[in-house]
Write a structure and sequence with these properties.
It is a single chain. Helix content is 81%, strand content 0%. It is an all-alpha fold.
């Protein structure tokens, strides 16, 4: 009888241990399930964002095409814009040589090597072919769309001495779009350089050992760039943002584009570049 009681107590103890082990293991599948749900939610959110960006870009391109076709057939707007071009050319005649130099700087002959250099710097800093290809897409896709709109709208150039010599359509401005693309790549380059500097400072902070106080250790998790670099980056950013507006102004003064040509490029190209930048953003 005692032996039977002993076996029963042993079995109850084993069963309790087994049930306890099962209960302790239950949170693990739940944690895995929660992680899977969160991952699926992130993927779904990424797809929704990508779809929204594509639809937004397509809508902007469609609006630009409609605008260009309307401008092409509207004689009143053509006359008004011609008056602006002639007035700007007369008022800023001294700026014409600079406008010619700007036209050369943002021609394909110069812009393509500059873009290649920027992409090379991005590759060297990030050591990521994906980030370099991201920059390439930021340059190539918007310019391809601008070229497509030019072909569809086929708006004649302004009837000026220089305008009639231009071989391609007027709307929208290719040089202005090119300047936006170059500036966008330059800003992207500054961003990856800043990220590299912060990463280096984070590693330097971690290698300092455990002698730091907890507050300093916590601060090093989100390091700041050096003050000099932050100042340089801020100045370069302001200068770069001004460049497309100078290019747009020069194209009107030079007499080869209508104001609506350059205005459309100033609005549409940053939108397209930003959409490509977001669409090609690496998954986190």
């Amino acid at each position: 009888m005692a032996q039977t009681t002993h076996h029963k107590l042993h079995d109850d103890t084993a069963m309790s241990a087994t049930m306890s082990g099962q209960i302790s293991e239950q949170p693990l599948p739940q944690a895995d399930m929660q992680a899977g749900v969160q991952s699926a939610s992130r993927v779904l959110s990424r797809h929704r964002t990508s779809l929204s960006l594509v639809l937004f870009a397509v809508a902007m391109v469609a609006l630009a095409i409609v605008e260009g076709l309307m401008l092409r057939s509207n004689t009143a707007d053509h006359a008004a814009e011609m008056r602006i071009i002639l007035a700007a050319g007369a008022r800023w005649a001294a700026f014409v040589p600079a406008a010619h130099a700007i036209a050369v700087c943002f021609s394909a002959m110069v812009a393509v090597p500059v873009i290649a250099i920027l992409l090379g710097v991005i590759l060297a800093v990030t050591r990521s072919v994906g980030q370099m290809l991201r920059g390439l897409a930021m340059a190539a896709l918007p310019m391809a769309v601008i070229g497509l709109i030019k072909t569809i709208v086929d708006r004649p150039r302004p009837s000026t001495a220089r305008g009639v010599l231009m071989p391609d359509p007027s709307f929208p401005s290719g040089h202005t779009a090119c300047s936006v693309v170059v500036v966008s790549l330059a800003l992207f380059m500054l961003q990856v350089i800043d990220a590299r500097i912060k990463g280096s400072r984070r590693l330097a902070g971690l290698s300092a050992g455990d002698s730091r106080t907890p507050a300093i250790a916590a601060d090093s998790a989100i390091p700041q760039s050096p003050v000099v670099w932050r100042g340089v980056r801020a100045v370069l950013t302001v200068v770069l943002i001004i460049v497309p507006f100078v290019v747009a102004f020069s194209r009107v003064v030079y007499g080869v584009h209508y104001p609506t040509d350059v205005g459309t490029s100033l609005v549409l190209t940053p939108v397209l570049t930003w959409c490509v930048y977001r669409l090609c953003e690496p998954m986190r």
